[in-house]
Amino acid sequence: KQSRPFSHVAEHLYRLQNYCTMMAVVSGLQNSSILRLKKTWDKVDKKTLKHLNELHELIKPGNNFRQLRNLQENAVPPSLPYIGIFMADLIFIDNGSTNFLTDGLINFTKCRRIHAQIRQIKNYQGCTPYNFVQVPSLFDVLNNLSFMSEDIMGDVSLEREPR
User: Fold this and answer.
1) Which residue from 3, 19, 22, 151 could staple onto 13, CB 3.0 to 4.6 Å apart?
2) What is the pTM of this model?
3) pLDDT tens for residues 135-145?
4) How far apart are CA 14 and CA 18, in angstroms?
C-alpha cells in the first residue's frame, strides 16, 4: 500500500522530466531497509512493481548513467536534470586534466570542457519554468515531513518484518 503512492509520484516525475526528484524517490525505495521488506513487497501489485523496475533501470549508473543521460539530452523544456551527472563530469574533467600543458601554457581544452558543462546547466536554468499551482495543504505536508536516520530506518524495518 505504502509503495504505490511513491510509484505514482515517480511516474509523474518521469512524465514531467523531473529526473532529479525521480532519482531521489526511486533511489529511496532501493534503500536496504525498504528492500528487505519481502512480505511488504509481495503485496505490491505487479503493475506497480513493473513501473518501479522500469524507472530503476533508467537511473542505473551503468555505462556512466547512459540511459538517464539520453533522457536528459532529449528532454523538451521544462526539465529538471539529475545534477549528479554534471557534478561527476566536472570532477572527472578537473581531476583528469592538468591546468597547464607541458610547455607551461593554459590547458584551454580543459577550460572549454568545463565551460560546456556549465553552459548545459545554465541552459536548464534558462528554460521555460513549470507552470504549477501551489496547493497549500500539500505544501504544508511536504514542508513538515520528518526524516529518519539510517539507523532508525533499519530499526523500523526490523520492527515491521523481523528477520
Assistant:
1) 22
2) 0.87
3) 999 999 989 98
4) 6
